Amino acid sequence: MNQSDSLDTQANRLWADMAAWISDHSLQIILGLAAGVIIVALLLGLKWIGMRLCATDPTHVHWRTVVGRVLARTRIWFMIALAARLVAGIAQAPEMVATTIAVIFIVATTLQVALWARELVLGVIEHRAGGLEDSSGLGSAIGIIRLLVTIAIFVIAIVVVLDNLGVNVTGLVAGLGIGGIAIGLAAQGIFSDLFAALSILLDKPFRRGDTITFGATTGTVENIGLKSTRIRALTGEEVIISNAKLLEQQVQNWALLDRRRTVMNFGLVYQTAPELLAQVPLEVKEIVDAQPLGTFDRCHAALFAASSIDFELVFFVESPDYHDLMGVRQAVLLGIMRRFAELKIDFAYPTQTSYTAAPDGTFVLPYAVEKAD
C-alpha cells in the first residue's frame, strides 16, 4: 500500500466517522450549534457596544473608550472557534475532529487575548497621556510605544501557542532573552531617553508651551521628542537637552501657577518717629488692596540694619502672568513712594555719619537742630 492509498483510507475513515457522529448525535449537535449561535450573537453584541463607546468619545481619553476598544477588537474567527469548541464538547465529536477543533481554538484564543491585551495596554497609556500627544509633539513616541507593545505581546502569544502545541520553546525563550539583553545594552542611551519621553507622556510634568526652569535655564518648551526636549530660553537661544538628563534635575513649571507671591523690602531712616513706623503696615496694606490683582499678606518692621530700619512686605498677585506680577509690583512701589512723601517718611540709603567735637570739647551734631521758640 502506497502513501496515496493510506491518505485516501484515512480521509474515507474520517468522513465515515463524521457521518456516523452526525447521525448518532444529531440532537446534541443541534443543541451545541444553538448554543454556539447564542454565544456568537452575544459576542457580536459586545463588539457593537464597544464600537458605540468608541464613537461617543472623539478624544479617546476616557475609561469607557478603553473598555470599548477592547470589546471592539473581538474577532469573528475567535467567535467561530469558540462556538465550534463548544459544539465539539457537547456533541462528543470524534477524536480527530475534536483534536483539530481544540488546536484551532487554542490558536484563536491566544491571538484574541493578545489583541485584547494590546488594546488594553495602549488604551491605558493613551488615557494617562490625556491628549498630550497632540500638544507636545510626542506623536512619534506614541508610534514607537505602539510598535514595542505590539511586538512584545505577539511574541509572547506565539511562544504560548507553540508551547500548547507541544513544541519545546526553552531554547527559543533563552535566545529571545539573550538577544533582548544584547539590544538593551547596545542601545542603553536611546532606550533611557525613550523611557524618559514615555515618563513625560504619562506623568505630564510639563507640556509644550509651558515655561519651565531647570538648573540655571528658564525658557518655554517648544518640542518634546523621542530623545530630546527643545526649550526656547528667555535670552532667545534654543536649548536642547536629552529627556533623561532633563528628568534627572529639579524642574519648576511656571505654567501651573494660580497666583504669584512676591516680597518687597524697603528701609526707612532711623530718624522716623515710632508712631509713623507703627503706621507703615496699615498704609502699605491700603495701597496693596487698592490694586485689582493685589492681595495683602503681611508687612512688618523686620530688622535694624546698618543704615535703616528694614521692612518686609509680602503680597500676592492673583494671576500667573509675569507681566501682571511686575505691573502690580510697580503700582505698589509708586503708591508707597507717593504716600510716604505725603507723610514725610524718608527712605534710607547706605550712609555713614561722623560725630566730631569742637576744640573746647563741645559735641558737634552732624545735623541741624531746630531752635526752640
**Number of E-state strands:** 10
How do the helices and strands follow one another from N- to C-terminus? HHHHHHHHHEEEEHEEHEEHEE
Biggest sheet statistics:
5 strands, antiparallel
Low-confidence runs: 132-136
Helix content: 55-70%
Strand arrangement in the largest pleated sheet: 4-3-2-1-5
Structural commentary:
The structure is a single chain. The chain is an alpha+beta fold and 373 residues long. The protein has three domains: 115 residues, no CATH class; 64 residues, SH3 type barrels; 84 residues, Alpha-Beta Plaits (2-Layer Sandwich), CATH 3.30.70. The chain is built from twelve helices and ten strands. The strands form three sheets. It has a five-stranded antiparallel beta sheet. A three-stranded antiparallel beta sheet has the order 6-8-7. Strands 9-10 form a two-stranded antiparallel ribbon. Helix 2 packs antiparallel against helix 3, helix 3 packs antiparallel against helix 5 and helix 5 runs antiparallel to helix 7. The protein starts with a helix and ends in a 9-residue tail after the last strand. About 1% of the residues have low confidence.
Task: Describe the structure concisely for a colleague.
By secondary structure, the protein is an alpha+beta fold.
Characteristics of this structure?
373 residues; alpha+beta; SH3 type barrels; Alpha-Beta Plaits; 5-stranded antiparallel beta sheet; 3-stranded antiparallel beta sheet; 10 strands
